[in-house]
Amino acid sequence: MSALEKKAAYLRQLVGAYLEEACASSEPALLYEPVRYLIESGGKRLRPLLLLLAAEAVGADVQEVVPAAAAIELLHTFTLVHDDIMDQDETRRGRPTVHVKWDVGTAILAGDGLVAMAYHALFSRNYPRLVDMARVFTKGIVEVCEGQALDKEFETRSSVGMNEYMTMIRKKTACLFATACQVGALAGDGTDEQVDSLGQYGTHLGIAFQVQDDLLDLSSSVAVSGKPRGSDLAQGKKTFLVVAAEPVMSAQQRAWLAGHFGRHLPGEELDEVERLFRSLGVVAEAEAVVNKELELARQALGPLPPSEAVQAMLELSHQLVARVA
User: Fold this and answer.
1) Residue from 22, 111, 102, 113 nearest 70 by CA
2) Least crowded by CB within 10 Å, which of 63, 73, 258, 269?
3) pLDDT of 242-263, one tens digit each?
4) 162 with 239: CB under 8 angstroms?
5) Which residue has the higher pLDDT, 199 or 155?
């Protein structure tokens, strides 16, 4: 196990213990059972890890920042449960989604409860810059909702420009990475320059994460990723590959691809779609964007003093490009 993996395992354990206690209430069961079901499903817990590393990078004791890290994980979990409803996803992390296991109403309630629990965790400590933390945290929620709205709007459009796509993923995905880093830096009473640098790190890391996610949707099986291969295509999502392919496809290729939207495809047809994207050069283009954004993320950490936490964030950016789920 690498130094980063050991550190990440320790920090995730701290957050997991806090979350377990925060979600321990038994009544009413209709609220807390699905909340615990979501929390117990685990996941990468990347955002609380980023928050704790950002806090440590500016000199904080991570033990004091665990509630804020739990808050960002609760917030992220809320976005997942509502996203699953809107996208009608049936599995998440290899398990039935909450609206499938229970029903839509229960899933909405669980999501609402998670937001409230996130704020409860955030305000459970008297951090020196708590008002700034709350401001950044709330702004993050608004931007995630804006990104989700753009994502849904794009599903009904025949084409989406690359600038529009980048705005959407900056809000829907990268924003929460940036929020985690900024809130961590604020919880550690970092300087404004440090908060800004760590926010930029989170933004670039988040953009790379989403473009990588778009690539994995077409190449990763449900056994690996926890969701069906090609689910974005089945939902008519305008992923990086679809948006980048649009201006370089022939009319015949465009019509052929349109015929593969909106339905779950068998493996051999997904292979054909992947071959089309590779032949158009958009898979290579996506990989280049991932590498460029990760390099920008590493550069953003430049103003921070060398530390174990900064080294871990650098290593994390290198590991991201090799992820398979």
Assistant:
1) 22
2) 63
3) 999 999 999 999 998 888 887 7
4) no
5) 199
d(CA 284, CA 101) in angstroms, rounded, equals 38
Q: Which pLDDT belongs to residue 223?
A: 63
Question: Residue 55 region, left (φ>0) first, then alpha (ψ -120 to 50), else beta?
Answer: alpha
In whole angstroms, how far apart are CA 73 and each of 15, 162, 287? 9, 29, 28
End-to-end CA distance of the chain: 19
- DSSP letters for 153-206: HHHTSS---HHHHHHHHIIIIIHHHHHHHHHHHHHTT--HHHHHHHHHHHHHHH
Rounded Cα gap, residues 171 and 178, in angstroms: 10
Q: How far apart are alpha carbons 8 and 316 in whole angstroms? A: 10
Secondary structure of residue 95 in the 3-state scheme: strand
The β-bridge partners of 96 are: 91
The maximal CA–CA distance of the chain, rounded, in angstroms, is 61
Are the CB atoms for 134 and 70 separated by under 8 Å?
Answer: no
At residue 222, does pLDDT exceed 70?
Answer: no
Q: Could you tell me if 76 and 203 are in contact, meaning their C-beta atoms sit under 8 angstroms apart?
A: no
**CB–CB of 72/176 below 8 Å?**
yes
The secondary structure of residue 91, as a DSSP letter, is E
